[in-house]
Request: fold
Amino acid sequence: MTPAELTAATGVENSKAALAELAALYEGRGIELVERGGRWRMQTAPDLAHILRREREEPRKLSRAAIETLAIIAYHEPVSRAEIEAIRGVQISKGTLDTLIEAGWVKPAGRREVPGRPLTYATTPGFLDHFGLASRKDLPGIEDLRAAGLLDPIDLAMEQRQLGFDGDEQLLVENDEVED
Reply:
């Protein structure tokens, strides 16, 4: 629940202070009070979660297209279908967006005030919650992705070419200096 919803439900005027006090009270116990995407919830402490897990949900595998689309929406929201296709370089099927909406990670975010009034998409609090993010600002940057080894070597090579740090070009410069 959001602090405003808690205030409406409980009548407590300073719900943020009450939430902070409750979070401190439950700290180090089996249950913790956490904030994810501007909403507060009680959850099992991570070190005890395995004890309470009775049935295991089978994780749905997302296609590469769905993962790429989700990343584009997360980093560029609000974004239209045409903008997603321009960034990816290929068309996306309607099923890709439907899968992300069904998972509760993406939602329609209104229409652009341009000709054709295209529908835009944005991430949801469920997206932040699922990936353990407090806000979109917590998404990893390019340096974080590079450090984790998650960037494709082809992407790194293209980036280096754009910056003028290609090994072949360096070798040509060195060879020209030797001949002079």
Residues 34 and 134 are 10 Å apart (CA to CA). Confidence is low (pLDDT under 50) at residues 165-180.
